[in-house]
Amino acid sequence: MRILGSNSGRRHLHLLFSAFFVFALSIAINSAAGFSGDGWGHASSPHSINDVGPGGGPAAGGTLVTISGSGFTQSASVAFGGVAAASVMVVSPTQLQAITPAHTSGTVSIAIMENPHNQSAMLPGSFTYITKSTTSTNSTSSSSSSTSTGTSGSTSSGSSTPIAVSGASPTAGPTSGGTVVTITGTGFQAGASVAFGASNSTAVTVTSSTQINAISPPASSGTVAITVTNPDGQSTSLPSGFTYGSGLSLGSISPSTGPVTGGTTVTILGSGFQSGASVSFGGIAATSVKLVSSTEIQAVSPVSPAGTVTIVVTNSDSQGGTLESAFTYYHTVGLSWTDSSPVVSGYNVYRSSTSGGPYTRLNSNLVSGTAFSDLNVQAGHTYFYVTTAVNTSNQESSYSNQAQAVVPSQ
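Above: the chain sequence. Below: its structure as tokens.
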């Protein structure tokens, strides 16, 4: 630095300015590479299966099985005895639901796989397929004139308990179908069929005489009745039991970028958002979600590797909406330093891709504090940083020590 003036003035300024010399520059790379959180979708925690329920079902398949554990992601697949599940719905990183496929009778293992991250877990001997033998029902009543407790229904002789449907949950789903609906009531028999309006469900599990799980078939928008029909001919309906809708949709988000360390509050605009909706960034669950209205959600981005990811919003009734390549995670490099005196106007931060320079100043205005974040870095690159202090006479010190930052490749 060149300082003009008398010799005594130069010495004075030099001595004064040396008090502002920056030293002890340190660096921190904010990177999510190898992060150890429980991010949903990036398998930072190992897969495990802790519990399965129910533990058995018919060899014909169709049983809705809830699996509890850890490390589950939206890309998870499930197999029963080596046969892929008929349907898989990931509820959270610790729970998923799967519909059993057809299988020969016997006890089998349940396995969960996630191909993108080569993670897997298995629970040996956790599900038993049963081939039901033909049995006769103990019908002591020669005739039955009981009627369904539902608003419409019928009974026939040969059943001691009249069939009735009392409720269904959830009560809405997308027109594409695929919603697992739990139907409650009485008098349900093994082999019962379920219809949503005029369309039959292709996957029905009678878990007991008071509960059925059925997957909604595709249908047009509108409200339909849910009808349960027993093999003996009894049937009953729940009028307006299920509503098909166009489903929720995502329109835009803001901001569309944030650091890999997470913590960015993102506003998501769309339609059909419901209370209890969840949000994921590239398969990783948002750290918090706030429902502002049916057209707006605010979600805080989780920790994630760098790159562009898809945002998914899922309502509590399993309806989902996707915005492809919506949010970009970037690396940041954090710098901090100390000086020998508080009497400075500010600091400048310089960067080079070559050790020893030449350096390019990053800040357009003086940095008032002793920390700075470089947001414009690229994965897999190495950067070298120095800082200077500027005194009240707008004179700049020499460079501080050099600090090196190696940005991870992902």
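Residues 7-18 form the longest helix (12 residues).
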